[in-house]
Write a structure and sequence with these properties.
The strands form two sheets. A twelve-stranded antiparallel beta barrel has the order 3-4-5-7-8-9-10-11-12-13-14-15. Helices cover about 5% and strands about 55% of the residues. With about 280 residues, the protein is mostly beta strands.
């Protein structure tokens, strides 16, 4: 069965499990560790990015996370540079979970700590980023539309406000907005109709993510089609990165991610909230 397979590991509302998206925050507060790698040709340079992130719940609804990105940048002209981006911190609160309607949402506050990364990569100023993320499954559709019930949409919106450090006052605010469309094959087989899919396809969630940014009226971003495989203790995801405009880059990149569900791997230590 689908729900027991992933246990209490991640964002769950009713019978719906929302897997962690690869390019933006998912709507659940959880105990997890994540590693990702991506490559994309941005305007004027090829960029590779290795990300690491650790999230820990303090209560069942409130959690903290810390993360960092190691980047390799190879510009069309000039020497290549590499190093760590600034340290990223975040606090998140699970705002609501509605099981019957498969709806879930959180609010959070992220921060990029200026001066903590490599001088060749990281900005010298800090930012704070209030955020809202949500997920909605279609499991409450009428039975006549039952084959649409495995569908779900998730999204996140945040604004980066430069607040302190070298050059902060000259930087514009950045609107980050993203959404994903997901079709859960485990949900289809367990709660709509068993169609005979076997491993590994029985645990797959085809997904398309749209991570976007708007700065000073100009919007850039990607369309990321791919698939996420859900297991007992972890998930694996692989997506292409297709620029939505010439300002977003050229050529097709990719992003790969692994999330470890510490809630299930270590339920009595790192996977447990400090205060229940």
């Amino acid at each position: 069965m689908f729900v027991p397979a992933v246990g209490s590991a991640h964002a769950i509302a009713g019978m719906r499990v929302f897997p962690a998206t690869l390019s933006f925050d998912d709507p659940g507060v959880a105990n997890e560790a994540a590693v990702g790698f991506g490559r994309v040709r941005a305007p004027g340079a090829v960029q590779k990015d290795l990300s690491v992130d650790y999230s820990k719940t303090l209560t069942r609804r409130f959690g903290l996370s810390v993360g960092g990105d190691y980047q390799w940048q190879t510009p069309d002209a000039g020497p290549a540079v590499r190093g760590w981006d600034n340290l990223a911190l975040a606090a998140q609160y699970q705002l609501f979970v509605n099981g019957p309607h498969e709806a879930i949402g959180l609010v959070g506050l992220g921060a990029s700590v200026g001066g903590t990364g490599s001088a060749s990569i990281a900005e010298g100023y800090s930012t704070i980023s209030p955020e809202f993320a949500f997920g909605k499954g279609m499991g409450d559709l009428p039975w006549g539309l039952r084959y649409l019930r495995p569908l779900a949409v998730t999204g996140a919106v945040s604004v980066d406000f430069p607040i302190a450090g070298a050059g902060a006052s000259a930087q514009p605010n950045v609107l980050n907005w993203a959404f994903s469309l997901q079709y859960s094959l485990p949900y289809l087989q367990d709660f709509v109709k068993y169609v005979g899919l076997k491993a590994p396809f029985a645990n797959m969630v085809p997904v398309v993510e749209f991570p976007m940014q708007t700065v000073s009226g100009r919007t850039t971003g990607y369309m990321n089609p791919g698939v996420i495989w859900l297991g007992h203790y972890y998930q694996i995801g692989l997506e292409a990165q297709i620029p939505v405009s010439a300002d977003s880059g050229s050529g097709v990149g990719f992003v790969f991610g692994v999330n470890l569900y510490l809630d299930d791997l270590l339920p009595h230590s790192l996977g447990r909230a400090l205060w229940n």
